[in-house]
Amino acid sequence: MCCDLKRRFLLLYATQKGQAKAIAEEIWQQAGAHGFEAEMHCISEMDKYNLETEKDPVVIVISTTGTGDPPDTARKFVKKIQDTTLPPDHFAHLQYGLLGLGDSEYTFFCNGGKTVDRRLQELGAQHFYDTGLADDSVGLELVVDPWIDGLWLALREAFLLQKEKEGMSSNADTVSSSLSPAPHNMDELNLSSEVRNLKLEDEGVRSSDVLSQKSGDIHLVASARDTEPSLVHSVPPISQSALNIPALPPDYIEVEFQDTHGENPHLSSLISERTAFEVPVTRAVQLTREDAIKTALLLELDIADIVFDYQPGDAFCVICPNNVSEVEELLQILGLSEKGDYFVSVKVKQGTKKKGAAIPQHIPERSTVKFILTWCLEIRAIPKKAFLRALVECTSDVGEKRRLQELCSRQGASDYTRFIRESNVCLLDLLHAFPSCKPSLNLLIEHLPKLQARSYSVSSSNLYQPGRLCFVFNIVEFPTCPARPVSRKGVCTGWLADLVAPLLHPNKNTLDAKGGSPSTEKISIFARPNNTFHLPADPSVPFMMVGPGTGISPFIGFLQHRQKLREEHTDWEFGETWLFFGCRHQDRDYLFKQLRCFLENGTLTHLKVCFSRDASTTEVSSPKYVQEVVRLYAKEVARVLLQERGYFYVCGDKKHMADGVSDAVVDILSMEMKVDKLEAMKILATLRETKRYLQDVWS
């Protein structure tokens, strides 16, 4: 269909890690089949669109990053629309629909989208479609898929309304008929988006034989005991259903194998947003006993020779590689074991149907296959449905092909969540489970996201230890499960643990020939400043810190910094400091027993510690968790927060700790102020907004 017969809308995306862009591309791809023409741009490309003069509907897909910030690509746009001199009718002409992406594990859920949505409303813009807020903690697709399904009906109605406003309602039938699969009458406009969507055919499967084929015709050798579904096996009703599967994403990358001569790019070239530095690891300490459930390590980096300013509470990122053995395994399955050291040239495929096709920014134009799989692609990423759909075409076994179709289909949404998302399945797991699937390298480049640098809280003070940066982490463990028969360590924490093993366990093989000290390993890092999680600017203001486990990390930096300030400024007034720390066992994972030193020299006023797995030595059971200990000091918490206008910091696991702490604070505020819980929640919200209740949490 020619563009002039379709109805145009503007499609903007703001992405941090590629999620919003991928969803926008899905909308762009589906638009044509529904009789629309989407003009798609990154929201940062403000020279290519103009909302001040935009007459057609606008669709915005926007993610959230950090502690509720819009993504980097949206910063200029947000700054522009937040101009306080703009009149309240600035966007009165604008119709828009917004899809926000976020993670409810974090406090400011979808705040990037909410910020833009709220400001557009303040400037007079109108919704033509309700805002969608997708939650990555349960699966973005649970909101994204139905939101996209309903978008087409909303767009049709927006265009019909637009024509009526222009005094052309008499031509509504003509407008409707020009929208390819549009309803023929107004009654059909009320059909649910799901029913309409079932009419769509996969562009890559012109006949629906594959979509309607029952797995009962395929799994002829399945044993009678296969009554439970699994990653590789389905049961009724899905095994007997016709499937609605996504359209096949167009391929757009071309890989040309060359020779083995040349040099791979420097790691710093992979980081566009910050300056990366290669620094030595000078010290490694295991903070937990061997029989602790989790292994915590402290690493010290030498930053004396670089310009790397940081404040206690800041974070920084470590550039890490994928696991060597997993890369080798992937090369073997791809049939590229002999070509791992070959350089490849990556180009955009001529004639591709993908709009705005470009080489992903994280892929060098020329590097070795092994470099791409080791440093560029997140091979541990949970495969998205579009990737599963593409893998269908690389699978020769009919039964395996059907199961992959089920997992990416609308009907298989619960199976996808259970066996892929919740099981943390990655590409290697899929390739083992579906051995006839043989994807190409270009398909991996097209669908696997960028290997992200991992962020860690600084656990030191530059004032206390000039030229040194410390951080603490648990070695992440992923145990086996039915969908993943092998256990794995975290990509970065596992690599760091292996890297510093010689420092932890020096022996003759790891000592250098000269001085008998372990050889120095280096890692590449870059700064990631935190704009809010810092000590109070006024040292006389009291503050409380809650940090169980490795959540104590930034508070060690806080206390070191405070100790040094006390030593250098004996005439200053310093507010009281509280620390609530918790771990499983006092003798196994009490990470920083030297906290007592801070207590003894007056840097720390109050230290409250609990141990969740140790048996109580008194008749009255001791509190096991930090949120319980916080409740014991209700009057002190209320005094510090309300009377003395102090600060409250929380660092650590959100779901199992931080939410419990905020609930405790709400109850304390309610009890001490004699107000109901709703009013107490409003008070806590105000404390958050004024940056006096601060969180650095992870899921």
Features:
single chain, 699 residues, alpha/beta, Rossmann fold, six-stranded parallel β-sheet, six-stranded antiparallel β-sheet, 22 helices, 22 strands, globular
Write structural notes for this entry.
With 699 residues, this protein is α/β, with parallel strands linked by helices. It has 22 helices and 22 strands. The strands form five sheets. Strands 1, 2, 3, 4, 5 and 6 form a six-stranded parallel sheet that branches. The longest helix has 25 residues, at 141-165.
Question: Per CATH, what is the topology of the domain at 7-163?
Answer: Rossmann fold
Fraction of residues in helix: 25-40%
Helix-strand makeup class: alpha/beta
Uncertain segments: 168-210, 212-225
> How confident is the prediction overall: mean pLDDT?
87
The span between the termini is: 46 Å
What is the percentage of strand-forming residues?
Answer: 15-25%
Q: What is the CATH superfamily of the domain at 7-163? A: Flavodoxin domain
CATH class of the domain at 7-163: Alpha Beta
Sum up the overall morphology in one term.
Answer: globular
Please report the total strand number as a whole number: 22
CATH architecture of the domain at 7-163: 3-Layer(aba) Sandwich
Helix segment tally: 22
What summary fits the major beta sheet? 6 strands, parallel
Rg, alpha carbons: 28 Å
